[in-house]
């Protein structure tokens, strides 16, 4: 199977030869200018850097780290590492120094590329003094062993190195929702299998445009941006920073876009901050005007040219998908894991079934185990966890199926529905099991709830901890708390009416502080760390359960 798959570097060389002068990447610079790189320029810079890496005479397959926010030279460095015969180890650009050290030491990295970062001083102590560093063109003001210009002073390599399909390409460290990050090993054939199939599935073309803004070190962005650009030829625009995100989006006017549910919610909140939800909903219902209003809203977000919009990494509330549909944009759910290159299931256009993710992707086998766990097998399945054979054996069955840790079911058409995480399911003090994710999805439809975490391990009844959106918090502060509370009570009653008795919520607790990556409540991919939420608020659970208010302000 692996022989038939075209591998990333081979496909890159073909593109470089076929359209050397085509624009490949558009990078905003600190002075407001835009830097454009063609395929030939990217190839030449990668080849010069690869020559410099070769001159260091490192053992083949050495691990080389990349610590940077998304930028053009993140991808150029990755290509250079591969051309030189090494393994790239990307790190999240917002890790603590301790986490940086953990990954660098565990992966035995011999060199680190450092690029665009917001807070290098807090990360830098995690880089051992003995580890040589290379500063990329966009880099922090700091001392580095070498600069990108030093690498570019080398002549380009003259050969086209083609690593074997069964050669290790990258170690992708998981974002650590369940504790210590694990290094997922992917061969070039894994990346090639997932990318070549995905390109066919979505029909990504050379005229497509994508905005790169989710961390490139995460498997979804790596596949959807870096590998999709190599296999499909799309132009990659980079976002400058969070403040300029909307301008970056409008400049790129992407034709394909991938977002996590939190991003799709943020877009919606942004629209509601300019126009009240009730007014927009009323306008969208009007026959002819509704379509024009929807188009205008999408244009205002820079999403009016989108052919394909995907959402993944966490369940997305159905009401949110329906909201975008009314604007004229079909957001399709995609399901996958770091352990299978994010390539597993996706909803096909026109085949949407409410409440279900979609069908398994080409080349993916699926089965539901006796305990309800979804298990998948394909050419995208990882080789295992680096230096952790026991954890690898726990994750992959003897016949090669990946245990996803998700409970689910399939219908006759092959649609998959997730019903909860096996590890997240908790038991109340009455001995009844509760899956939090489906309940959280029902609560997240409220336009003023931005984040929600259902807890209940060992409690008489589960309860939901909620973080209000910015607008919700303003309303609460402006003395209109009564109206908000009334609608939240109605939501609670509606959700409880749809749940089994043992799942019904004691109440909603509105917590004051938003959960973010910076305060440790979210992973770098914006997933809620349940253990952190429970650790922070756990001491108050018994007190909150003693109250009989449906909505409690904490």
From TrEMBL:
Gene Ontology MF annotations: ATP binding; long-chain fatty acid-CoA ligase activity
Signal peptide: none
Organism of this sequence: Pseudomonas taeanensis MS-3
Residue span, AMP-dependent synthetase/ligase domain: 14-386
Protein name: AMP-binding protein
Xref: Pfam families: AMP-binding, AMP-binding_C_3
Reactions accelerated catalytically: a long-chain fatty acid + ATP + CoA = a long-chain fatty acyl-CoA + AMP + diphosphate
Xref: InterPro entries: AMP-bd_C_sf, AMP-binding_CS, AMP-dep_synth/lig_dom, ANL_N_sf
Transmembrane intervals: none
Cellular-component GO terms for this entry: membrane
Keywords carried by this UniProt record: ATP-binding, Nucleotide-binding
